[in-house]
């Protein structure tokens, strides 16, 4: 007999907003017109981009700091333009990166117990973009590797440990980049762009591995993310402005594995993916619902599960990593929904009668340990995430401080290498370097001398003018 209903342990997943006293209240969420999620979460902190006069700022709150947030609560406020995107480091729960309209990326170290004073000094400033930086994304398995993408249509991959731009992909996109996603082991990235193309790129070889023109025919923004099996999931709009989701195999991008039309709402669909359960949650900006789907190997591949609906539209959304969830309550996802003036956690639960650990819901998940060092990744190594068991809950360990060892700037200005072997960059010999340093020093001293002379001349002129004024007044 034919099965009428598809069997799935996630068929009855339901969402529930927490009580009012467990929300974060009186937060002025940013009004900047940019389609990022405006919120980033980890097992210790929730970070929210907020309205700030004279620059850009974001709040970083310890998870337990619920209730009304005082207007004078300290912020992270080193950017001179609005902050557009933030991302917590997956290997250190106290390190967060931010991209801004001021064309810079900044990496911050948050004190263990949260902020007591506003933070204005980042650990490192990464300068290389010529227009605003709207996307920042940490490498999933290599320590201190950060990707940024800007409105200059360039993607730069940084070694945060040295503050250097080591890969610059500036000739692959002819139009604005909507989003960038790493694959499971960080060997490839996929991008969605305003030119309606979805590209799969090998950043170290600096080549496009696969691309699909007009992945979605509509003109409104698309999103593309990698799934654990290497397929690419996209959201976008049809020519008739209907919202669509699609599944693609990068080895054959001619036709999608699956393509579903959803509705005619005009908010951009932000996809959040859980590789452990193969569930994708779609949160539309300006929607008041979260739809969720299960991805499987059997047709139609993308299976609708359910919708969590509420009354208020969402301005942004944060997504908790698996290790920050409460396994005793069968919680499989936790969202942090941004309203106009507050942040509201929403908990997704699988109903189970037993109080025992449900190992089918919680396979080993990516832990906070980096599988590779930055240098190893840039040299060509790949590694899957280091997995941890959640059987006894996740206990955050001590994070080591982010240390940035800058190269001598005078020695050789770090330039983002283009289409060249990143590893075999010839090092300057110390002799030529020291000669250059001396030449630069002489130049600086000459400049200082000429400035001093100018000041002396101006002084004389001012005193003469003062004497003449005195005579006229007399």
From TrEMBL:
Keyword list, A-Z: Coiled coil, Repeat, WD repeat
Q: Which is a Pfam family this sequence falls into?
A: WD40
WD repeat residue intervals: 76-118, 126-168, 170-211
InterPro entries according to UniProt = Coronin (IPR015505), DUF1899 (IPR015048), WD40/YVTN_repeat-like_dom_sf (IPR015943), WD40_repeat_CS (IPR019775), WD40_repeat_dom_sf (IPR036322), WD40_rpt (IPR001680)
The molecule here is called: Coronin
**Highest rank taxon of the organism:** Eukaryota
Q: Which gene encodes it?
A: CORO1C
What biological process terms from GO does the record include? Answer: actin filament organization; corpus callosum development; endosomal transport; endosome fission; endosome membrane tubulation; establishment of protein localization; macrophage chemotaxis; membrane fission
DUF1899 domain residues are 3-67
List GO molecular-function terms, semicolon-separated: actin filament binding; small GTPase binding
Sequence similarity: Belongs to the WD repeat coronin family.
Which SMART domains does the entry link to? DUF1899 (SM01166), DUF1900 (SM01167), WD40 (SM00320)
GO CC, alphabetical: actin cytoskeleton; endosome membrane; flotillin complex; lamellipodium; lateral plasma membrane
């Amino acid at each position: 007999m034919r099965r009428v209903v598809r069997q799935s342990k996630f068929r009855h997943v339901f969402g529930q907003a927490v009580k009012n006293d467990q929300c974060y209240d009186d937060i002025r969420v940013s009004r900047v017109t940019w389609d990022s999620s405006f919120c980033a979460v980890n097992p210790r902190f929730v970070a929210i981009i907020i309205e700030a006069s004279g620059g850009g700022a974001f709040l970083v709150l310890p998870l337990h700091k619920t209730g009304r947030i005082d207007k004078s609560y300290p912020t992270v406020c080193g950017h001179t333009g609005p902050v557009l995107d933030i991302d917590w480091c997956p290997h250190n729960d106290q390190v967060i990166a931010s991209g801004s309209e001021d064309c810079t990326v900044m990496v911050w170290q948050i004190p263990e117990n949260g902020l007591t004073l506003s933070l204005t000094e980042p650990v490192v400033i990464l300068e290389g973009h010529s227009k605003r930086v709207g996307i920042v994304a940490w490498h999933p398995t290599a320590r201190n590797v950060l990707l940024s993408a800007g409105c200059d249509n360039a993607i730069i991959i940084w070694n945060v440990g040295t503050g250097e731009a080591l890969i610059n992909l500036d000739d692959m996109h002819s139009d604005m980049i909507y989003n960038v996603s790493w694959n499971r082991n960080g060997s490839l990235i996929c991008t969605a762009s305003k030119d309606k193309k979805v590209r799969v790129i090998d950043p170290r070889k600096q080549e496009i591995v696969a691309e699909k023109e007009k992945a979605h025919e509509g003109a409104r923004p698309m999103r593309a993310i990698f799934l654990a099996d290497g397929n690419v999931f996209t959201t976008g709009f049809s020519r008739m402005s209907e919202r669509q989701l699609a599944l693609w195999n990068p080895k054959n991008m001619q036709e999608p594995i699956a393509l579903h039309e959803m509705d005619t709402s005009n908010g951009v669909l932000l996809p959040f993916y859980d590789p452990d359960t193969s569930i994708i949650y779609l949160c539309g900006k300006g929607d008041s619902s979260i739809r969720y789907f299960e991805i499987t190997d059997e047709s139609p591949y993308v299976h609708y599960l359910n919708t969590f609906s509420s009354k208020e539209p969402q301005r942004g959304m944060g997504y908790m990593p698996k290790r920050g969830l409460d396994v005793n309550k069968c919680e499989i996802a936790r969202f942090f929904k941004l309203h106009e003036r507050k942040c509201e956690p929403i908990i997704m639960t699988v109903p189970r009668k037993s109080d025992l650990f449900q190992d089918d819901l919680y396979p080993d998940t990516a832990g906070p340990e980096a599988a590779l060092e930055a240098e190893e990744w840039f040299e060509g190594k790949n590694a899957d995430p280091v997995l941890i068991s959640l059987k006894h809950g996740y206990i955050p360990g001590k994070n080591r401080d982010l240390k940035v060892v800058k190269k001598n700037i005078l020695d050789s200005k770090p330039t983002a290498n283009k289409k060249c072997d990143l590893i075999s960059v010839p090092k300057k010999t110390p002799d030529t370097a020291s000669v250059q340093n001396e030449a630069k020093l002489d130049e600086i001293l000459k400049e200082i001398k000429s400035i001093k002379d100018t000041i002396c001349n101006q002084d004389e002129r001012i005193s003469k003018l003062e004497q003449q004024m005195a005579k006229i007044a007399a």
